[in-house]
Specification:
CATH topology of the largest domain: Jelly Rolls
Number of helices: 6
Structural class: alpha+beta
CATH class of the largest domain: Mainly Beta
CATH superfamily of the largest domain: B-lactam Antibiotic, Isopenicillin N Synthase, Chain
Shape: globular
Order of helices and strands: EHEEEEHHEEEEEEEEHHH
Distance between the termini: 27 Å
Number of domains: 2
C-alpha cells in the first residue's frame, strides 16, 4: 500500500470569485449536520448539489437509495458549479458543499474503498479557507488553497482542524474512474501508483460480498462488484 498515491494537486484552478458568488446564493439555506456525528466536534454541515432523488438535504456519500442521482434545486441556482460539473466528464456519485465551522475538528478516520485504485475517487475544491486550517493526510499536512483542485485518497488516515476565525467551505465531488479521469490522473503518477494488490478472498466469501453489494444497488457497489468478478477464478 505504500506506493499508492495519497494526494494530487492538479495543475488547474477555478475562479475563486465565481465559486464564492455561487456559495453565497445558498449560504443562508439550512445546511444539514454531517451524519458521522462521532467523528467530529463543533460545526460540520453540508448541502447536496447532486444526490439520490435530487434532495439537497440528502448529503450521504454512500446510499442504498434506488432513486436516480440527479441535480438538486440548489444546483439550479449555481451556474458556475454546474459548469464545473459539466466539464468533469465522469459519473458522479455525490456532489456536496461541506462547511467546517471555525474551531471545529474532524477526528482522525479513514473512508473505506475511496481511493483511485478502488475505481472511485474524491475531489476537493476549496472555496473559502484560511491558513489556520490543518488538514492532515497520512501524517502529512496539506495546504489546499482557494480555487485549487485536489484528489485525496481517503483510504488513508486523515483529520482536519479549523483553527481559524472563519468557516471553511469545500466543494467535494465523488466520482467513478474512467478513461477521461485516467488521462488526468496518469499525468501526475504512474499506473502502478493507482494499483493495489488484490486481497486473497476465497470464492465462497467473494460470493457473499457480491450478494451484499448487490443489495446496495449503487454505482460504487456496482464498480466494486465488477472488480471482484474480474478477480474470480474461472
Amino acid at each position: 500500500m505504500d506506493k499508492l498515491v495519497r494526494s494530487i494537486k492538479f495543475p488547474f484552478v477555478f475562479d475563486t470569485e465565481q465559486l464564492v458568488i455561487d456559495t453565497n446564493k445558498i449560504i443562508k439555506r439550512e445546511w444539514v449536520e454531517h451524519y458521522n456525528s462521532d467523528n467530529y466536534s463543533g460545526k460540520w454541515t453540508s448541502i447536496a448539489l447532486m444526490s439520490k432523488g435530487g434532495k439537497w438535504t440528502n448529503i450521504n456519500a454512500f446510499s442504498s437509495n434506488t432513486e436516480d442521482f440527479i441535480p438538486t434545486d440548489v444546483l439550479d441556482l449555481c451556474e458556475y458549479f454546474r459548469k464545473i460539473l459539466d466539464d468533469f466528464l465522469f459519473e458522479k456519485t455525490a456532489v456536496r458543499l461541506l462547511n467546517l465551522g471555525a474551531g471545529a475538528e474532524i477526528k482522525p478516520h479513514t473512508d473505506h474503498c475511496l481511493g483511485y485504485e478502488d475505481g472511485v475517487f474524491r475531489l476537493h475544491i476549496p472555496i473559502i479557507t484560511n491558513s489556520d486550517v490543518e488538514f492532515v493526510l497520512d501524517n502529512k499536512r496539506l495546504i489546499m488553497n482557494e480555487g485549487e483542485c485536489w484528489y485525496l485518497n481517503a483510504n488513508f488516515m486523515h483529520s482536519v482542524k479549523n483553527r481559524g476565525q472563519n468557516d471553511r467551505i469545500h466543494l467535494v465531488i465523488d466520482g467513478i474512474r474512467n478513461e477521461w479521469t485516467d488521462a488526468i490522473f496518469l499525468k501526475e503518477a504512474t499506473i502502478e501508483q493507482f494499483t493495489k494488490q488484490a486481497p486473497v478472498i476465497d470464492e465462497d466469501e467473494k460470493k457473499l460480498i457480491i450478494a451484499e453489494l448487490e443489495k446496495m444497488n449503487s454505482p460504487i457497489a456496482k464498480q466494486l462488484i465488477n472488480n471482484l468478478k474480474k478477480n474470480s477464478t474461472p
